[in-house]
Amino acid sequence: MKQMAKFYFTACWVLIICVLIQSCGPMARLKKADKKYDIGEYYTAGNLYRKAYSTLPLSKRQIRAYAAFRQGECFRIINKPAKAVNAYLASIKSKYKDSIVYLQYARVLHENGNYGEALKMYQTYLKAHPDNQLALNGITACNKLSEWQKLKTDYVIQRAGEFNSKNASDFCPVFADADGSSLIFSSARVNSTIRKPSDITGFPQNDLYLAQKNVAGKWEKPVPMEGGFNTDFDEGSASVTEDGKTIYFTRCPYDETQSLGAQIFMAGRSGGQWTEPKQVVLFKDSSITVAHPAINASGDTLYFVSDKKGGYGGKDIWMTVKEKGMWSTPQNLGPSINTPGDEMFPYAHPDGSLYFSSNGHPGFGGLDIFHATRIDDKNWNVVNMMTPFNSNGDDFGITFERKKQKGYFSSNRGESKGYDKIWSFNLPEKEFILTGVVTDNKKQMLGDAIVRIIGTNGANVKMRTKKDGTFFYKVEPNVDYVLLATCRGFLNQKNQLSTQGLKESKTYKVAFQLTPIGKPIPLNNIFFEFGKWTLTKESETAMNSLVKTLKDNPNITIELAAHTDMIGTSEANMTLSERRAQTVVDFLIQAGISKERLSAKGYGESMPVTVDANIAAAYPFLKEGTVLDEAFVKALKPDQQEIANKINRRTEFRVVKTTFGLK
């Protein structure tokens, strides 16, 4: 019995020691993880929390929940949302007591594109915190995302392979000169100063790189920035003045015992060489983190990011103005821009507006790019840039090629390892093209015609048609144009077109058919009731076309001539043709044409048609040069007679004078 009792006593002590050893190991890791977390080494802390969680006994539920939550926080901060999802879910299953876990879980679900589940988690958190702005904005976004995804802009984006490396992040591009031939960006590629993974992000430290275009306009291979820019620390997020002579950038010094945050440095260029970078002190307390500088076009306003206390939550955007060579006390841009989330990577556009990225405003998930325009000194109008700029990943660091609608931005969309890549964007210019042709009334090309184009934008262009009668002109958007075609020996013809309100490119095709002077011109598609001189409704289009011709040529007078076929007596046909000619004249007078410019003449059956090439081509039984008189028509077959009679029944006009109203 004593031996048995001794055995049990020894076994109990062994068990207690094992439990203590097991619990001491995870607790020690947890304590170390907390220290790393507090100094901002989230990558290292996350791995320590993961190991602590996996070795903690199930009985330590709340400690396990805490370790899982902190692990999720680390992964969220270093942009590993898929891992963060699993960690937060583990924390929830372990009954983590702080409801903040539901908000953070919702945010990473949102970033992973799981909008339905994210909406549920936002709503769960909102029950306990009904006024939380991040949750409210998240719900707004999740409810509108299906609608937003249908709102396509005309911008075209693609990965900028000329800047991106294979197994590293490349991000935050910025133009370094006014003509867009130099680009500076951040990269952690192989030949950077240090390849050891950062304890903060898990990625190697970043350096600043420069890419330049060659004489052919092609980008050369990027090279590290020369001078004192790249160190053993992390450098990135640069901004260059419009004249290319001053650069501001972010540097993140590192100390394994404490968090040193980030600092802004600047350097000047003289004679092609950069000066040694110097720290820009913006707050009296120089230990306050400042980063992501963005200088405006005139160089007197600097936007930047800081997590200084007294802001609106996470990281806020601030601004300072240069006064007498010194930067003024920084001002927070206020709640129009800043949210309880993070607002970062500002870009000051030459037009005075501001671009930035945020995970606090309603968006697609992660960081979205927003465009802000000032309403007044304190308020901004903030608009999500939508797709294709934004995705459920991180989209940030936009830059424009000065005032052009093209440039670059950064995104980690579709990157399984979380690398940031540089993307190009371009807004294709809408093209409104006018193509036309000038012919005579028999569709023969007029190669010596003149086309005049007059626009409400002040355009007054005169061009000659090509040999084939064609012409080409690029018209401008939101302009009304009047077109006038002229040619020696022909009447003028006007046309109009408008590009007002068009949202898509368009090609206009205009055909001018000029009427020759001195020859009778058939008025096709003018019809009268059988045996009468009343115009049918089908004649209205042709009559209005004649009105337009007379208005386009205000100095001509014309004779309206009506002809009949051989059916009926000559006297009756003469009377009918005279009345039909007068009917046409009366219509023109009612349409506003001066009666002094018009005369009516009836010819009855006395002037049969002489077959020309066009008629012969349309009716093979008729030969060119044949006169369709009574003798010829009666010799035809009955169906051919009807065709010949139809050709003879016609209304024509001919120009009598071209000097009406001229002194």
Quick structural summary:
Helix content is 27%, strand content 28%. By secondary structure, it is α+β, with helices and mostly antiparallel strands.
Description:
With 663 residues, this protein is α+β, with helices and mostly antiparallel strands. It folds into three domains: 156-426, Neuraminidase (6 Propeller); 432-514, Sandwich (Immunoglobulin-like); 521-657, 60s Ribosomal Protein L30, Chain: A. It contains twelve helices and 33 strands. The strands form eight sheets. Strands 6, 7, 8, 9 and 10 form a five-stranded antiparallel sheet that branches. Strands 11, 12, 13, 14 and 15 form a five-stranded antiparallel sheet that branches. A four-stranded antiparallel sheet has the order 1-22-21-20, with no helix packed on it. Strand 18 and strand 19 (380-384) form a beta hairpin. Helix 3 (61-77) runs parallel beside helix 5 (100-111), helix 4 packs antiparallel against helix 5 (100-111) and helix 5 (100-111) runs antiparallel to helix 6. The radius of gyration is 41 Å and the shape is elongated. Residues 1-23 have low confidence and may be disordered.
